[in-house]
Design brief:
Layout lengths: L4 H6 L7 E4 L3 E5 L7 E7 L6 H7 L1 H18 L6 E3 L15 E5 L9
Antiparallel strand pairs: 1-2, 2-3, 3-5, 4-5
Helix pairs in contact: 2-3
The structure holds guanosine-5'-monophosphate and zinc ion.
């Protein structure tokens, strides 16, 4: 857990562009944006996956999703936005600290790769 980059960002030990926050979560700009708006909503406390967080603190998950939804609405057009939670290797998760991607500003395609 000491090597977790999102724990370090949450603790202010690694730099990131923080765009918003709630009581227990922060929202940062993704380092490698895949859309005109690409934010990550990250709980300050370390949970490896959505399942871990849900099992321990479902209210935190609601808080994280609520912040992501508000940011999507704020940064997306009237046409909408996309929230993504990659989970595990097959889900494409590369950082083992729960985060919700907020993607907005372009028309998304489906299915994702
Ligand atoms: P995942 O693949 O785990 O769903 O998403 C991880 C995301 O974190 C990727 O979109 C990647 O660009 C982003 N990312 C990885 N390292 C950093 C970092 O140090 N700072 C920021 N702001 N984003 C990062
Ligand atoms: Zn962490």
């Amino acid at each position: 857990m000491n090597d977790c980059i999102f724990c370090k960002i949450s603790a202010g030990e690694l730099p990131a562009k923080i765009v918003d926050r709630s009581a227990h979560a922060i929202a940062i700009e993704d380092l490698n944006p895949q859309a005109p708006t690409h934010l990550l909503v990250i709980p300050v406390e370390h949970y490896a996956t959505l399942g871990d967080a849900t099992a321990t603190d479902a209210r935190l998950v609601a808080e994280v999703m609520s912040l992501a939804s508000r940011l999507g609405a704020r940064h997306g057009s009237e046409g909408g936005f996309r929230l993504v939670v990659n989970t595990g290797a097959d889900g494409g998760q590369t950082v083992g600290h729960l985060h919700v991607h907020v993607l907005a500003g372009r028309r998304m395609t489906w299915p994702p790769g």
